[in-house]
Amino acid sequence: MVSEEEVDAGFRGLFTKLAGDDMEISAVELRNIFNKIVAKRTDIKTDGFSLDTARIMVNLMDDSGNGKLGMGEFATLWKKIQKYLSIYKNNDIDGSGCMSTPEMRMALSKAGFSLNNTLHQVLAARYGEADMTIDFDNFVACVMRLEMMFKVFKKIDIDDTGYIELDFHQWLSFSMI
Prior knowledge:
This protein is 60% helix and 0% strand. It has helices at residues 9-19, 27-39, 51-61, 71-91, 101-110, 117-127, 136-156, 168-175. The mean pLDDT is 89.
């Protein structure tokens, strides 16, 4: 996590302009910010970030629990998005601006996720288009969801066994993330 003291003056000025009077960024504001940024890019394909994806990002990064991102939280998310953009572009082997399912498999591995074939198929079906390509916003949605799920699992698996036990309400709560 990036602390507010670590944020440079240029980024601080940008954040102040984007965040508005409350000095925090909501999921709606985050979606609008990212959609303005990706709309200007010609090297990646995207149909824009959804509100659901923005909410996942806020939930993952919101350490204060207020449903919004402060400057340090937003700076940390910004670094993640830059990292994911680099992974996305480096694994778009054919330069099409979107990923095929094999490219996505390599990208997820580079992002630090070791998944089995079944999970790769589920993710391709969930985040892919009809032609089984994955655009940038769907890649980010997938990686952020995986990151959230891994974070929750590790929090519950305190003995690091690779197994957890949940009751029905816990399972419902975590599956809704």
